[in-house]
């Protein structure tokens, strides 16, 4: 068995289509079939169920796909870490995050990391919750900061920040903090909300606020980007409900009205793969424990 067998197998395992996988690998379909057959012969197991219409992984194939992704990504990390150590560096932590995590949690952690471990590098990607989990499961991220309550069993999680919500209105809106009494004042308004693609659990939590106030919101726009929501509110195209921490650093003609009196809260969760052996991640997690 050679590494190319695993690489070919991983691409086919993701695509579940020989022609598409062959195109991605820049080889012919017969050549890909031959490599997969060699791998199955080597292991003495069947990795794919093949019919004229589709290709699907066997139980053994699903197991090998998960492990192969780990092996290949870990090997890539080992190579990079070896090169960094040769240059006197401690490694790299690949961080995914939702926008609100950049308001306070991540900057504080990066500042602490730079003080304690200045030779550990970080790469940052702002992604929605689903893409972060996918990248963790495929070992493309070391740690993710998400707004979810449940995560796959392969992942560890830790609550790093709990926040209340705020109502966001244009500064031209007749109701602002000084004359706000209840969310019921907005039952005829259009709302701009985070899409349930952002997180179904988060979306359901927001919907429960409206249920508590006895009305169904008129949702005019949905987005997974906070800045898009704020811009629409600024243009008086609706009002929004967001985590309160998102108001930090916003320089738009909008106002945040605290809803801290409501029972609903939102949690920011740090999530990482149980199998991740990145030494730099271990050090990063140690700093997070002191948060």
Q: Can you tell me about this structure?
A:
Residues 1-58 form the HTH lysR-type domain. InterPro entries: LysR_HTH_N, LysR_subst-bd, WH-like_DNA-bd_sf, WH_DNA-bd_sf. This is Transcriptional regulator. Pfam families: HTH_1, LysR_substrate. GO terms for molecular function: DNA binding; DNA-binding transcription factor activity. Helix content is 40%, strand content 23%. It has nine helices and twelve strands. The protein has 291 residues and is α/β, with parallel strands linked by helices. The chain has three domains: 3-71, Winged helix-like DNA-binding domain superfamily/Winged helix DNA-binding domain (Arc Repressor Mutant, subunit A), CATH 1.10.10.10; 89-162 and 268-288, 3-Layer(aba) Sandwich (D-Maltodextrin-Binding Protein, domain 2), CATH 3.40.190; 165-264, Periplasmic binding protein-like II (D-Maltodextrin-Binding Protein, domain 2, 3-Layer(aba) Sandwich), CATH 3.40.190.10. Helix 1 (3-15) packs across helix 2, helix 1 packs across helix 4 (59-86) and helix 2 (18-25) packs across helix 3. The mean pLDDT is 91. The strands form three sheets. The protein has a five-stranded mixed beta sheet with strand order 4-3-5-12-6, sandwiched between helices. The chain has a five-stranded mixed beta sheet with strand order 9-8-10-7-11, covered by helices on one side. The radius of gyration is 24 Å and the shape is globular.
């Amino acid at each position: 068995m050679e590494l190319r067998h695993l690489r070919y197998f991983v691409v086919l395992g993701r695509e579940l289509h020989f022609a598409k996988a062959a195109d991605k690998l820049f080889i012919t379909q017969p050549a890909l079939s031959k490599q997969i057959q060699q791998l199955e012969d080597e292991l003495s197991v069947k990795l794919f169920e093949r019919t004229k219409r589709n290709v699907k992984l066997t139980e053994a194939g699903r197991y090998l796909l998960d492990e192969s992704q780990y092996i290949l990504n870990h090997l890539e990390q080992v190579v990079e870490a070896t090169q960094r150590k040769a240059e006197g560096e401690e490694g790299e932590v690949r961080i995914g995050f939702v926008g609100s995590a950049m308001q306070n949690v991540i900057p504080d952690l990066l500042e602490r990391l730079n003080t304690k471990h200045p030779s550990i590098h970080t790469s940052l990607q702002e992604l929605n919750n689903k893409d972060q989990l996918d990248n963790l499961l495929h070992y493309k991220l070391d740690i993710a900061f998400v707004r979810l309550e449940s995560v796959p069993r392969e992942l560890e999680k830790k609550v790093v920040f709990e926040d209340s919500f705020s109502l966001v209105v244009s500064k031209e809106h007749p109701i602002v903090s000084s004359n706000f009494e209840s969310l019921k004042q907005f039952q005829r308004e259009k709302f701009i909300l985070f899409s349930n693609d952002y997180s179904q659990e988060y979306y359901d939590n927001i919907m429960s606020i409206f249920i508590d106030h006895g009305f169904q919101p008129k949702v005019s726009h949905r987005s997974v980007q906070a800045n898009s929501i704020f811009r629409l509110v600024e243009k008086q195209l609706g009002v929004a409900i967001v985590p309160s921490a998102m108001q930090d650093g916003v320089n738009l003609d909008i106002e945040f009205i605290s809803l801290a009196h409501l029972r609903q809260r939102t949690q920011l969760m740090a999530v990482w793969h149980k199998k991740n052996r990145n030494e730099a991640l271990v050090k990063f997690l140690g700093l997070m424990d002191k948060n």
